[in-house]
Amino acid sequence: MDCPNREKNLAKCNCTYEPCPRKGICCECIAYHRSRGELPACFFTAEEERTYDRSIKYFVSRRK
Ligand code: SF4
Q1: At CA 8, angle to CA 42 and CA 26, rounded to 5?
Q2: Residue 20 within any structural domain of the chain
């Protein structure tokens, strides 16, 4: 089943990684990154997001 919120979610999504099949499907996006000890793109600024480093370590390092 397609996500009924996908288009609405995409309007707010800041992720620039275009080939990702999870874009706009936030539950899959969060589960994927959580399983890797990461955070989704929307936790990061535009500059940070473009590094594609989604690690919690990177997130914290940018907020000290
Ligand atoms: S944050 Fe990760 S899972 Fe989510 S849309 Fe971007 S690349 Fe895909």
Answers
A1: 45
A2: no
